Amino acid sequence: MENKKRIGVLVSGGGTNLQALIDAQMGGELKSGEICVVVASKAGAYALERAEKAGIEGICVERKSFSDKASFEAALLEELTKRRIDILILAGFMLVLSDRFIRHFPDRIINVHPALIPSFCGDGFYGLHVHERALSYGVKVTGATVHFVNEVTDGGAIILQKAVEIPEGISAEDLQQKVMREAEHILLPKAAELLCAGRVRRDGRRVVIQ
Ligand code: GAR
Fold it and tell me: Is 131 a catalytic residue?
């Protein structure tokens, strides 16, 4: 298909969400967009190996090679612009992007978060911590959210959510795997396809899927 959206995926670690996107692309579920580059914020991120195995360009723009956030983001933007990226997907990307950066991609950056926003989200809620906090609070249901990225950490309009039940006595590590398997890896490719196909319309905080 012509006019596929050019997708850039930002990662920081293992990249199982990236893998779900790659699998969706291979399987034809993600057909209105194409992953053109994977950018890791950390050298040695396993996600880069996943990209390589799939024949997708992977690069590293390492946060710690830059003295400040502005110069890191300028370098990141340059790499994305060079490749004419239309849509950015944050798939386990552990840095918060500035308002200034986000403005280059209005309603074109999405993130997957491992909880049902507005629970267990915001500054300090990332990765395994989210599940530890959910367990210590004692909630019986958690899940995942795919949302637009705006200037507030995990604060952008919600696109898709899926609930996951918390079994008695489960560890944070096992809960993380369960949420990935039952929610994140299903929602993220789905949201990516909807966005690339132009089927996601935001009206203030409310998102309408057409
Ligand atoms: C995922 O659970 C993702 O939702 C979470 O980190 C994990 C990354 O795993 N992201 C955040 O907490 C961002 N706030 P992955 O590298 O295997 O996709």
Answer: no
Indicate whether residue 112 lines ligand 1 (CB < 6 A): yes
Give the DSSP H/E element, type plus range, for residue 163: strand 158-165
Q: What is the pLDDT of residues 22-63, one digit of tens each?
A: 999 999 999 999 999 999 999 999 999 999 999 999 999 999
Domain of 186, CATH number, reads 3.40.50.170
The interaxial angle of helices 16-27 and 46-53, nearest 10 deg, is 10
- Asked if residue 92 has its Cβ within 6 Å of ligand 1, the reply is yes
pLDDT in tens, 157-183: 999 999 999 999 999 999 999 999 999
What's the domain count of the chain?
1
- Ligand 1 atom 13, closest CA: 126
Domain range for residue 202? Answer: 5-209
